[in-house]
Amino acid sequence: MRSWLTYTAARVALFAGAFGVVYLFGARSWIALVLAWIISGLASYVLLSKWRDRMSTSVVEWTDQRKDKAVGDRLVGGAAREDEIQDELLRSQEQAADSTESTQATEADKPAK
To answer: Strand, coil or helix: what is 28?
Structure first.
């Protein structure tokens, strides 16, 4: 997490330096902000590439550590259990339908009185 902080501080410092230079050359108001933003962005792309790579590596590692694999396992287990429950319900409905059909068939086979 420290690499994120140093990279961000370096970006802010580059922006402040670019703003100061642009301001000294006579740019004022929002034009100075836009020029400083563009200049600092280009400078940071060139000058801070190693820090940016370190920061992205540390952020990826941090997010990988935060992933809780137990939650994924619980979700998969819950989905499997839900599928089992649905299968049991379908089987019981099919059995009920089969028993109703067989009952009706045996009643139709009985002679009328």
So the answer is: coil
